Model the fold of this input.
Amino acid sequence: MTGRDILRLVRFPNTITAAADIVAGATVATWGLPSPEAWLLSASAAFLYAGAIALNDLHDLEQDRAGAPGRPLPSGSVSARAALVVAIFAFGVGLAPIAFLPRAAALVTLSLFATILAYTFLPKRFQRLRALLIAGCRAQNFLRGGVVSGAMGPVLLVASALQGAWTLLISLISELENPEAGRRRGSRLDLFLALVGAAAGMAGLFASGDRSPWFLGFASAGGIGLAIWVGDPLRRAAPGAGLAVRRAVFALPIWGALQVLSTGHWLAAALVASFYLAVLGSASCLRQRAA
Done:
């Protein structure tokens, strides 16, 4: 077992998207650059995500032996015992900041952890509920960024809900992106994604204030463009290739950056978007082909 195997186990590129959520949430809530506390929480969010992935893979080990034999656990490159140690360690680091966080941020963090456990141990037959739980995890993580910055309002709540909505769409894409998914169903998905992309810009109405409406326009256009790119309406990729799911997960920092952009803060939006480059770079190094 190597360090590379551990990084593949926890889907390291995906953990970066969790860190980006905190930075985006802090920026949307304060209309400024993240505070030191937000950066600390951002780092711990990556560990919390890593622990969730390790625990979920451990729980799904028997199922993955047949469905995803190339993953670190079923392939034998990481032992079940090692995965458990990684999960415990990552959860410990991810939850450690609770001791220093404001009361509200600590409560949201505990709620997030409880949601992670509920998602992991809820039987697979409750697929719709599981999809809502994973969306709730992403929304709460985004919310923590604003709460730890001492700001709480409708802008942050709308942005957190949109981050959860994008995650819910990832679950939908995962169901539709298979060889049996027909063109008609795929077209509906493309339209749905585009509409939610427009909603990202609409969220800027709550935050635009005295900002130029151009910021709202850029955010709306960017959201629609991102949604169409993920949905792949031209079907350039073969069905079942998993490309749309991978794009949707990896593009979460871009989705967050568009919400930051709707507040009129170009520099902060660029900062959040830069996490996407880190996601792509680490995925390339680890040769992670799936989300």
